[in-house]
Amino acid sequence: MIATDDVRQVAHGLLLPSIAPCFDLAQTLDCGQAFRWAAQPDGSYRGVVMGQKLSLVRLGADILLQDTTLADYDRVWRRYFDLDRDYAALKTGFSADPVLQEAITYAPGIRVLWQEPWETVCTFIISANNNIPRIKGIVERLAALLGEPLGDGLFAFPTPQRLAEATPEDLAPLRCGYRAAFLLDAATKFASGQVTAPAVAALPTPQAAALLMSIKGVGPKVADCTLLFGFGRAECFPMDTWMKKVMAVLYPGGLPQKLLPVAGLAQQYLFHYARNHKELF
DNA sequence: TACCAGGGCCTTT
DNA sequence: AAAGGCCATGGT
Asked: CB of A268 under 7 A from strand C?
């Protein structure tokens, strides 16, 4: 099921036919990998990606990307929603493992997103020792404070240059505590070219992680999240407190070797399952 | 090595 | 109502 070949321009946007079994909006957009999506009262989701607004709604088995074009599909949505990956085949492979089978049965509609690298660094710096509702609040206040207004109360994520011009006092309204200094360090390094997305992308994963960790506030876990969610490094396996519990309880002998090349994708199903089955841990 | 730093939302007690 | 924990990291 590769949606890229099936996408259709319709009157109100772009239709991804029959993709809902491998793309559940709530499971994908609200599972703790991305922080700029908001559920609307009608069940649709609204957010901003690469400075572009988008609303998504499920229509039966189809997903409608509202009020957007094929040009934007090629420029942004195809890659962002990982639409070139065959999730049906991925899940079939995962199902050989009984634990993953259970996690996939619980949330079969998770996709792992390819987010904008700079935004990914920032949002996962903010995520450190934090909870998802508060992370979302901080990110939205940051966008509103320094991001380009896009109308409808939405804002682009701020550029490194814009954030680098800010002072710690400027960031006080974010109420993100000590993370403010880390954000400013990230902005300085990106704005100066000391760390850039192309430079990270060009490096093997261990060296890419090391370059990211030259930013204050980026340790191994945040680096892994950035590489997985911002650079499509599917082998990266962020080890947060939930995944530590998952490994201790469900994988005492470690992850099956066969899963290692896509361990990060497995991680997202396991993370979501664990967070919603706290009684098991 | 151990502890603490801003802050606040959610869960458990 | 109060306490504890949270998609951690850096500084002391």
From this structure: yes
- What lies within 8 Å, CB to CB, of A198 at 6+ separation is none
- Give the containing element (helix H, strand E) for A186: helix A179-192
Q: Does strand C come within 7 Å of the CB of A216?
A: yes
Q: For the purposes of burial, counting CB atoms within 10 Å of the CB of A267, is it exposed (0-12), middle (13-18) or buried (19 or more)?
A: buried
CA angle A74, A79, A84 (to 5 degrees): 95
Query: Each residue of A180-229: pLDDT tens digit?
Result: 999 999 999 999 999 999 999 999 999 999 999 999 999 999 999 999 99
Handedness of CA A143, A148, A150, A156 (dihedral sign): negative
Of A139, A177, A173, the C-alpha closest to A158 is: A139
Instruction: Enter the tokens of residue A195.
Output: 């760390």
Residues 10-49 of A with CB under 7 A from strand C: 31-33
A108 is near strand C: CB distance < 7 Å: no
